[in-house]
Specification:
Adenylosuccinate Synthetase, Chain A, domain 1, 9-stranded mixed beta sheet, 4-stranded mixed beta sheet, 19 strands, 31% helix
Length: 439
């Protein structure tokens, strides 16, 4: 068995796409298991830079079957645009499969998302307004339209007849907006269904069979653990389960199938949207990191909030995901700083705490307790061996894994696939019996 789950260990945007792309070179199946087009993955291979929102990052491996599974909500406009962009760049999408049970993001979802954020004003969540939350809401209310409905024009009409009158009532009577035209939606989305029909398959069975055959299956998470609807910093969260358990919920594969869980984190921390952020740096240091790391959202382009790495949060992430390894990305961005800081604990009302607060509201009150590590000036973006890294970089990495209690499997020292330092050569061949790599 060789099933690996890659999860975001912070608030998303941890460069999971690069890690997945790297592992996907050896994968037989790559599965996107949750989220929607509100999540963006940037993959850089040579001079090619791909920004994907729905298609799994493993699409560059022509040998791997790439699956958009049941737990994803699919905006057909985004998916078809990505398919076209990939084909224009000479990347085949013949290996792409989409679950008939994945729910569809429709125009009223995006409109309600936008209007609701505007209505809340300063109390807004900070969504990307891609309609993902309202689509998951309809899924939970059992009124959603799924890919299996989209590819059948008659069923699509039946589902729109049942749902759209209530949506238009909400739009006109509550939000004081304009109603949507059902005939126009039917015509547009029936055409999307026609284009997507060749990709639709029984993905739950496909993934199950691959696991049963002992193939290398890679489960790709979206967003990050701190945005999980149950385990994140509620209410400033997404509407799905980015945690490792979501790989089972979103694909139909049982938990015994999972062999290894890798948590991806940046060498610092970023966050998009509203909510508490204990290590945020609203100063020159934060601006320096933002500009060097080009920390702007893949989906929205808005600047990300930037702060020091927070191991209190990472320990919590390790707990709820059962992490076997960490992958630390964008280490190169920190070059040039006189020192780098690690948040080792919080100070809350005069007391030092080392655990993530159960009451998430307290995150707005905590003060980070920092440990300082000497910085480095060297350009590490061309280094591929751990032993060749500057002493200060190794000190920083070692201290993070000691504090989190999870060994580091790989380091990202640049955006491209080849700008990686591997500390474990084959992550598909390891499991929970492996010993820590450096400590």
């Amino acid at each position: 068995m060789a099933a690996v789950v890659v999860v975001g260990a912070q608030w998303g945007d941890e460069a999971k796409g690069k890690v997945v792309d790297l592992l996907a070179e050896r994968a037989d199946v790559v599965v996107r298991y949750a989220g929607g087009s509100n999540a963006g993955h940037t993959v850089a291979v040579g001079d090619m830079v791909l920004k994907l929102h729905l298609i799994p990052s493993g699409i560059l491996n022509a040998r791997a079957c790439c699956v958009i599974s049941d737990g994803v909500v699919v905006d057909p406009t985004v998916l078809l645009r990505e398919i076209a962009e990939l084909r224009d760049r000479g990347v085949s999408t013949a290996n792409l499969k989409v679950s008939p049970y994945a729910h569809v993001v429709l125009p009223y979802h995006k409109e309600i998302d936008r209007l609701e954020e505007e209505r809340k004003g300063t109390g807004k969540i900070g969504t990307t307004m891609q309609g993902v939350g309202p689509a998951y809401e309809d899924k939970a209310k059992r009124i959603g339209i799924r890919i299996g409905d989209l590819v059948d024009p008659e069923r699509l009409r039946e589902r729109l007849d049942a749902v759209l009158p209530d949506k238009n009532f909400l739009l006109t009577q509550f939000y004081r907006s304009t109603p949507l035209d059902e005939d126009a939606i039917q015509a547009e989305y029936a055409d999307y269904g026609r284009q997507l029909r060749p990709f639709v398959d029984d993905t739950a069975r496909l993934v199950y069979d691959a696991v049963a055959r002992g193939e290398r299956v890679l489960f790709e998470g979206a967003q990050g653990t701190m945005l999980d609807i149950d385990y994140g910093t509620y209410p400033y969260v997404t509407s799905s389960h980015p945690v490792a358990g979501g790989a089972c919920l979103g694909t139909g594969v049982g938990p015994k199938a999972i062999d290894t869980v890798i948590g991806v984190c940046k060498a610092y921390t970023t966050r998009v949207g509203e909510g508490a952020f204990p290590t945020e740096q609203l100063n020159e240091t934060g601006e320096y990191i933002r500009e060097r790391g080009q920390e702007y959202g893949t989906t929205t382009g808005r600047p990300r909030r930037v702060g020091w790495i927070d191991v209190v949060g990472l320990r919590y992430t390790a707990q709820v995901n059962g992490l076997d390894f960490l992958a630390i990305t964008v280490l190169d961005v920190l070059a040039g700083l006189p020192e780098v800081k690690i948040c080792t604990a919080y100070r809350l009302r005069g007391q030092v705490i080392e655990d993530f607060p159960v009451d998430r509201r307290l995150l707005a009150e905590v003060e980070p307790v920092y440990e300082n590590i000497p910085g480095w000036d060297e350009d590490i973006s061309r280094i591929t061996r751990y032993d060749d890294l500057p002493r200060q970089v190794k000190q920083y990495v070692d201290r993070i894994q000691q504090l989190v209690g999870v060994p580091v499997a790989l380091l990202g020292v640049g955006k491209r696939r080849d700008q990686t330092v591997l500390l474990e050569e084959d992550l598909f061949g390891v499991g929970r019996t492996r010993q820590p790599l450096l400590v």
